[in-house]
Amino acid sequence: MVVKEYVTYNQVHKLCQEAAPRILEEFRPQLMIAIGGGGYVPARILRSFLKQPGSPNIPIQAIGLSLYEALPSNHPSGANTPGDIEQLGTKVTRTQWLDLTSLGEMENLVGKRILIVDEVDDTRTTLEYAVKELEKDVEIARQKLGGKGEKTVFSVFVLHNKDKSKKGSLPDDMLKDNRYLAARTVGDVWICYPWEATDIDEHDAMAEKQPSK
Ligand code: 5GP
Question: What's the CATH code, domain 4-70+85-207?
Answer without folding.
Answer: 3.40.50.2020
